[in-house]
Amino acid sequence: MTDVTATPPTQPRPWLDATLPVEERIDLLMAEMTLAEKVGQTHQVANINPDDDAAEIASGRISSSLYASGATAGNERDEGVLVGNIDAAQRHAVEGSRLGIPLLFGRDVIHGHRTVAPIPLGIAASFDPDVAEEIGEIAAREAAVDGVAWTFTPMVDISEEPRWGRVAESLGETPVLSGRLAAGLIRGFQGDDPSDPDRLAACAKHFAGYGLAAGGRDYDTVSVGENTLRNLHLRPFRSAVDAGVLTVMAAFNDIDGIPMHAHEHLVREVLKGEWGFDGVVVADWNGIGQIVFQGVAADKREAAALAIRAGVDLDMVSGTYLEHLEELVESGEVDLALVDDAVRRVLRLKFRLGLFERPYAARPGASNAPTPSTRAAALRAAQAAHVLVKNDGVLPLGDEAGKVLLSGPFVDDGDALLGTWVLDGRGEEVVTPEAALRERLGDRVTVADGRFPDVTLMQARAADTSVLLLGEHRSRSGEAQSVVDIGLPPGQLELVRAAAAFGKPLVAVVYTGRPLDLTELLDLADAVLVVWHPGVEAGTALADILLGDAEPHGRLPMTFPLSTGHIPTSTHQRRTGRLIRADVDHQEGRYIDALTYPRLPFGFGLSYTTVDYGAPVLSSPTMTTDGSTTLTVTVTNTGERPCREVVQLYFRDPVAQVTRPLVELTDWALVDLEPGQAREVTFDVQASRFAYAGRDLTTRVDEGEIVLLTGPDAARLQPVSVTITSPKASS
Ligand code: BGC
């Protein structure tokens, strides 16, 4: 190891006085910093190496590292980017550099560290911020053991485009669901006090509009107006900022010609100015360097100038700030105040995380392997990710299911079920469907020989019930994993068709990172479960749901279109001059070769019972623009099994200054119902929920009618109208 002789501080370090307010500590520290040291604080490297990078770290030219994991020597893993030994690198910064500013270690801990939970889209299917919080909290605790202080989650890009592989990382297509679940994750990761050694800084990403990448092609251009941005895409970011997220990541895309890494209006003016965000805006991977590829800067020097002006504080790996900022300031092309602002924010983050007090991560003897209690939490989340989208009475499987044949590519492949963005989870720690079902059903389970589809079919003929595990491998969704066809992967439908021909009960389980075209599968199978990628408790959760030891209660966080050609389709499509009616939609100028409606609406999901919805009732049919009313709906479990119903509240704004969504989710409640039980669910409906950006882009609440709609999903809703009046009129 390179020996960097520790330079004992030659001057006092008053900023180490933790009793002082953070801003004062930053002032004291910045007063001592040279321009070169300031620029160093804007530079993040990947795969830091305590040996090779010792001199760079000690010279104060590195602020942060991306990917390193493993607190101490001996924790290094031999897996490409993981280099471990965080504390050795930290020692060079804290004890070897002039000012002793600690390094900040970031890593993508997206849906679990060692205890891998469902992918974010699966967490979104829970509609449960508590599930999100619990998963975040466990992931933070486990990652902290490996020295990680910062994670790059939650992703809150509004996702309405199933071809785009990154929908797997998202929290779905609606701003309120995405925003509340993001807040849950942020609470889980950051806690009340992010300097708690078991917490991390979170990061809302990718700011902004990334979900609109043209054609669903990752990294592609985005054309969207500011009204749609404000009324839709920026909202979950605002929720994340309001929830106290410490960092925000800029997006790879441009918006209407302006790369987000150079977008002064959205980053500096809106995010930092209008919303008062005082945390760090981090670039995405080489995002500043890519401004050159986007053709908006001639070279990296110009890119650096654009990005620092736009308000990107920390350069992820492009090196442009390190190479050029100092000279740009000295030449007068970049105002020092811009660099100071970036540095202040980075230092603020480091102080908030308690890194100056507690720079080292080693915890001798600490383990972050999954435990029964972390597994129990992952199991709850995995169960909640099971969305039952069809059931002709075959589920749950009882004794009459007889001999069960398990087939398809995921029967015994734990790793495939971990989902995208798993850097630390281990395939061998996944309970596979085969293992869990064998444990429960013993000899009643046969596993098909997947190598020979015709043998599988012979086995299916001999079985009483077939359970087909279909869908996408974890590597088929996620970053840079877009597809042109959202059908099931090749070969799977053939298997379904052949198995269905036997006329025996057929259950299809679909593991996926995106909405798929399930139209034919839904016709052929007797029951269909959409499960996303469920994580370490995949098999246990599946067995619980299939056998009725747990009730399915997940709901779709994205609309499932009828086919690829129907994209985009989502709840927030805006009104047009030709409204669609279900009975005559072919006459209303949509497709001539297909119906327009989605195959499965947003919010959809069945349980093993039936639930009746009464009509929504308002406590008052009017409210003032600054007031509220309450809406009550009675839900009754009319079947024979308990359930957890997701009672959903949507609204429509019939007349506004701009075109508004056909319906928009605004609230929901998770309601447990025993068989025969009825419960009243009451929503507090504040007029401020109906605020939107009007023609001049400022936020307004209009007087007039709002239609509130309640029901089990976005397509089965009962309306009631409320009139919003001016406060004066009512006083
Ligand atoms: C992704 C980010 C991720 C970053 C660091 C980028 O390619 O877009 O979401 O956090 O890499 O791994």
Largest sheet, spatial ordering of strands: 11-16-15-14-12-13
> What is the average per-residue confidence, as pLDDT, rounded to a whole number?
94
- Portion of residues in beta strands equals 15-25%
Helix content: 25-40%
Shape: globular
The hetero molecules present are: beta-D-glucopyranose
Tally of helical segments: 21
Helix/strand/pairing category? alpha/beta
Number of strands: 27
- Low-pLDDT ranges: 1-5, 75-83
**End-to-end CA span:** 76 Å
| Biggest sheet statistics | 6 strands, mixed
Radius of gyration of CA atoms, rounded to a whole number: 27 Å
Gist?
This protein has 731 residues and is of the alpha/beta class. Helices cover 27% and strands 18% of the residues. The strands form 7 sheets. The protein has a 6-stranded mixed beta sheet, with helices on both faces. Strands 4-3-2-1-10 form a 5-stranded parallel beta sheet.
What is this structure's SSE topology?
Blueprint: H1 22-32, H2 35-40, E1 43-46, H3 54-58, E2 64-66, H4 86-94, E3 104-107, H5 120-125, H6 129-145, E4 150-151, H7 175-190, E5 203-207, H8 226-233, H9 235-242, E6 247-250, E7 254-255, E8 258-259, H10 264-274, E9 280-282, H11 290-293, H12 300-310, E10 315-316, H13 320-330, H14 336-352, H15 372-384, E11 387-391, E12 404-407, H16 433-441, E13 445-447, H17 453-462, E14 465-471, H18 492-500, E15 506-511, H19 519-524, E16 527-530, H20 538-547, E17 611-613, E18 617-618, E19 622-624, E20 628-637, E21 643-652, E22 664-673, E23 678-686, E24 692-693, E25 699-700, E26 704-713, E27 716-725, H21 727-730
Parallel strand pairs: 1-2, 1-10, 2-3, 3-4, 5-6, 6-9, 12-13, 12-14, 14-15, 15-16, 19-27
Antiparallel strand pairs: 7-8, 11-16, 17-20, 18-20, 20-23, 21-22, 21-26, 24-25, 26-27
Helix pairs in contact: 1-14, 6-7, 6-15, 7-9, 10-12, 12-13, 15-20, 16-20
